Amino acid sequence: MSLEILYQIKNEESPFWAFAIHDGHQICEELIPYIALTDTERLREEDPYTAAIADLPINQFIVDTSRFQLDLNRDLENAVYLHPDQAWGLNVFRANLPSNYLLELYREHQSIYYIIERHLSTTIKKFGYFIIFDIHSYNAKRKSTSEEVDEQANPQINLGTYYNHEKWRGLIDEMSASFQKLKLDNKKIDVRENVKFKGGNLAQHIINQYGELGCVISIEFRKDFMDEWTGKVYPGKVEVYNQLLKNVLQSMNLYLQKIQV
């Protein structure tokens, strides 16, 4: 039996990391008979195209396995969706998973957290700190595909910054300001902090481990670049979002050159 979580790590000479931990859609063969959801149902709650958005000239950690096999942004107890209240009311599995499957998945969770820590420790040794763009996307049309998006409740970009050390306040403000200087569809970008999400378990874990040595900014894009019900991507949109992040990264690098980190 192998319930291995598939991921890719790209190393660059940079203190920055781009994470896309919910991009994946793959389920290992051993688990497929237990999965009760269709591919479309799974895709709706995954974050497709975030790996492409995260394709930046910095370190990258991209997960190819679906969060419906193991959610690396949940604590160990909730990383496998055993109950509907853990998964947007969805019944993920047809039957109870064998205990040896669960144990293997939990071991994978712990192993990958260790691997991430090892890489971040290397970045600290090289640069003295790290900054993570923890890239996600979220649904704003929960009722139907024709639903009108409540823009007041659903910003185009939600920055989850809540758990970071106060040391990074200036850097976070710089990121927000950088987004606000740019445009989407020829309009000023609505970017706000901690409205929809504050940062998940992985961000909290990393910050707890490293404190002021690292900053994790969870960047949640509203799924305006795709049809969130079918998974169909709108032509050219992913490239636009990727370029947004490249521009923001450039601004943040200039900011870091001006300050003593």
From TrEMBL:
InterPro entries assigned to the protein according to its UniProt record, in alphabetical order: N-FG_amidohydro (IPR007709)
Superkingdom, natural source: Bacteria
SUPFAM superfamilies: Zn-dependent exopeptidases (SSF53187)
Protein name in the entry: N-formylglutamate amidohydrolase
